[in-house]
Specification:
The chain is built from 14 helices and 19 strands. By secondary structure, the protein is of the alpha+beta class. The protein folds into three domains: about 110 residues, Gcn5-related N-acetyltransferase (GNAT) (Aminopeptidase), CATH 3.40.630; about 160 residues, Gcn5-related N-acetyltransferase (GNAT) (Aminopeptidase), CATH 3.40.630.30; about 100 residues, Nonspecific Lipid-transfer Protein, Chain A (2-Layer Sandwich). Strands 1-2-3-4-5-14-6 form a seven-stranded mixed sheet. A seven-stranded mixed sheet has the order 8-9-10-11-12-7-13. Strand 10 and strand 11 form a beta hairpin. Helix 6 runs antiparallel to helix 9. The longest helix has 15 residues. It is globular. The two termini are about 30 Å apart.
Length: about 400
């Protein structure tokens, strides 16, 4: 028997101890200092713990964030799971599983449609119903390999605009750029002032630089970056690059190019549909690696599929869902869509014509994978004639959750 509850202020030191040992053990035993560790960035989110009933020993911890995100043209609530940590003396006993199950119950009570996380290992969370939401590209190159950007920009316009460093209290000027860029991708979160100030303009160790490119006096693109390494082997690491149009994108790449006297490498993290390779003069010079990204799962199947928007069509499918963590999802559901509005209700398992696990259904729900791709991978089993209906109801979308938590 275990107890799941919020951690008190007096238990912050235990939370810090568990998370430090899990993620930065090379730093040695942590010393908790409220003045250092209780900065606004660290206080974002809600701490939770799983306790042993009886002696009350703390078994494992996590943190929850609460977001609004865009999914299929509408805004939905999403819980962000982070800082899952358990000390070695309490591992391999199912405590983290119990912590995740209790977290899902809290998400359900708070009407969250989705839950997302950044995994230390995908297969660990996949066994509990999370699935990859999106992948991202890591692109590395010599700054000189971005020289094409200035040439292309000058071909398009005679207005060069200007670059300017920003401080956290100027974040509002970036909001229109972020919103326009984020509108291209589902699972983009709605950022509030605290998120901008303490998660974009701050970092755990080295605060990033944030630079904006202004055109006609208005922000049109910005980038968040750090410069790492020793002299002669430095990297400009761009964590976020947002822009309103291709001219702004070229201007930001030019900004990176102009760091050639300071760095030997530029590293960019970009969505997989980036236009970089369409406009680069020599894409072969850009070293590219496809990286795993965040993971997502549905919290409550009936509620989520009833809340989503669908194409303006009529259709019906019956889904037998396997959920290893949430018993309220481990059932069969009939999804009926009429003129784009969906209703999802529990039905008898025998009536189902599609069988899939909640991870697969979660990818379909957010548009991360196509029906045909999942069917080819053996991720779903459908009776004849139902794949076409499922494809119509769940078209693939551009998904890119960029914010870490």
């Amino acid at each position: 028997m275990t107890i799941y509850r919020a951690l008190s202020e007096d238990e912050r030191d235990r939370f810090h101890e568990y998370v430090s040992y899990a993620f930065t053990p090379t730093d040695g035993p942590p010393t908790y200092d409220p003045a250092e560790h209780d900065r606004p960035r660290a206080l974002l989110g809600d701490r939770r713990g799983l306790f042993a009933d009886g002696d009350g020993d703390l078994l494992c911890v996590c943190k929850h964030y609460w977001f609004d995100v865009h999914v299929r043209g509408d805004e939905h609530s999403m819980a962000g799971l982070a800082s899952v940590a358990s000390p070695p003396e309490h591992r391999r006993s199912g405590h983290v599983r119990d912590l995740l199950a209790a977290s899902l119950e809290e998400y359900r009570d708070r009407d969250a449609t989705l839950a997302a996380l950044w995994p230390f290992r995908h297969r660990f969370y996949q066994q509990y119903g999370w699935a990859t939401a999106n992948r991202q590209l890591r692109v590395e190159c010599d700054p000189a390999d971005l020289s094409f950007a200035r040439t292309r920009l000058e071909e398009r316009t005679t207005e060069h605009g200007r670059y300017r460093r920003l401080e956290a209290d100027e974040y509002e000027s970036l909001d229109p750029v972020y919103e326009r860029h984020a509108a291209r991708y589902d699972l983009s979160i709605d950022r509030d002032a605290d998120w901008w100030c303490y998660r974009v303009f701050e970092n755990w160790e080295t605060d990033p630089f944030v630079a904006v490119w202004e055109r006609d006096g208005e922000p049109a693109g910005y980038l968040e970056y750090t410069i790492n390494g020793d002299w002669g082997d430095r990297t400009m690491d761009v964590a976020e690059l947002a822009y309103t149009d291709v001219e702004a994108f070229l201007a930001l790449l030019s900004f990176c190019r102009d760091h050639d006297s300071q760095v030997q490498t530029v590293r960019l993290r970009l969505p997989t549909d980036t236009p970089l390779f369409d406009i680069a003069s020599d894409p072969d010079e850009l070293e590219t690696e496809l990286e795993g990204g965040p993971m997502v799962r549905i919290v409550d199947v009936s509620r989520a599929l009833s809340a989503l928007s669908y194409p303006t069509v009529d259709g019906s499918v019956t889904l037998a869902v396997d959920d290893p963590l949430a018993p309220w999802n481990d059932e069969a559901f009939e999804l009926s869509v009429e003129r784009g509005d969906g209703t999802c209700e529990r039905v008898a398992v025998a009536d189902s014509n599609i069988a899939l696990d909640v991870a697969t259904l979660s990818q379909l729900a957010v548009g991360a994978r196509s029906v045909r791709a999942l069917e080819r991978a053996g991720r779903l089993d459908a009776s004849p004639g139902t794949l076409e209906t499922l494809e119509t109801l769940f078209p693939e979308r551009a998904v890119y959750l960029r914010d870490g938590f």
